[in-house]
Amino acid sequence: MKLDHLPYPSRRQPVFATNGAVATSQPLAAQAGLDVLRAGGNAIDAALATAIALTVVEPTSNGIGGDLFAIVWDGSKLHGLNSSGRAPRVLDAGRIRGLGHAEMPEIGWVPVTVPGVVAGWEALHERFGRADRERVYRAAIDYARDGFAVSPVVADSWARYADRIDGPSREAGLGPQLAGWKEAFAAGGDIPASGARWRLPDHARTLETLAREGAAALYTGALGAAIVEFAGRTGGYLTADDLAEHRADWVEPIGVPYGDCEVWEIPPNGQGIAALMGLRILEGYDLARHPHVSEENWHLEMEAMKLAFADAHRQVADPDFADVPVEEMLSPNYAAARRALIGERALAREPGDLGSGGTVYLCTADRDGMMVSLIQSNYHGFGSGIVVPGTGIALHNRGLGFTLEEGHPNEYAPGKRPFHTIIPAFLTRDGRPVGPFGVMGAPMQPQGHIQVVVGTLDHGLNPQAVLDAPRWRVLDGLDAVIEPGAGAEVHRALADRGHRLASPDPGETYQFGRGQIIWRLDDGVYVAGSDPRADGLVAAW
User: Lower CB density within 10 Å: C or N end of the chain?
Assistant: First the structure.
């Protein structure tokens, strides 16, 4: 990629580096990764140091009890990793409905699936890592044990989650299940303000155990035993067998051409295919004719996204349980048929006939050309609200991605992986790496991916400019939100086309995602950007 066609209209300039870069949503974590790079580690080691540190310094979005996906460029090819956890063997959709749930609940044990993040860390380290395991854990342990200063966006998310957890916990009688969360994250009823020092001593001890013993400590050892004991004592469903049977799966990324590049995602059970479907539809338009932020382009992008979402939500499920027609969903003929449905007016999304929202994202690159796109999550805020006492392990609520609709491909089932929102992405050109990118934010993620790709390839925006640019987000039916920076004229024109534009919550920046990008230029120089909607930065050398 060359820079001679990249304008610089953004408020901040991109970061350039020759030896390596780390981009993520929290400065302390980015610097942890950079320290490992400078000490001789590679992009995998840097990604792991960053990811592990993020469980400490941004606990509002991820933790030891979450899931992980990654795409790795090893210097010659791409590799995909799916370390999402499966549902407990003792629980099924009928039993959940019998508990009185018409849809998956957000808080408590019901939405908890096996945590996959630790197995993902180990799989990446064993295959590609260069530094000692204890080295990549070091910064995170220090932050958790000695304390870290809470950054502004994290402090805001912390307070929002605390408010949200109180009501459901009281109404559902979940007090015993959530006692560990309150002890770790609201000790004495206090929530940390921006700039406050916070310590996570139990988290530190667990990280020390994992650094010393590896993933086995969680899946077959004492940490796993603590999870199972707490589940048994408080009405949970995870068993020792559930943990022992978890595996991180190496998978082949799926991709489509767009412009002069190829865009890559992890295959289902994730929603990355929705971004690819949207881009397949959009490749039939000349989006460069109109400004990047314009009513003409945004209408087309939003309509393409709605069509892609309709199919993804109908078809995507665990491929071990359902036949997901990936090839047909990404075919040019199907994209053309979907494109033909787009007119001048906004349409509600409906699936076609195929014939058969807390997360952290990071990307890293090293001087040898290895690059990593990694995402991990506890899902909604801190996840399920369950923290295993004495361990600091906050368990995610990824089971929320299941449906309880009978007969749906994604219906909850024992041992099954849910529809997953977290999706790392990667860009190549003619088989050569351009680089990793991602946008956090539950259903915003594929929408953010499309806007990054279109902004980069159709409009020539550099990484920082494309992340600074205003964004749109489609919701249900005709509903959507757009950022105020788009301007009143764009807002009015989209409303005239039939888009029902709600007012975005001014205090909730997460609704438009938080992205990171690292591109490799033709001469080997890296250029990177970090989203202003988060606390993050690019650390580079």
Answer: C
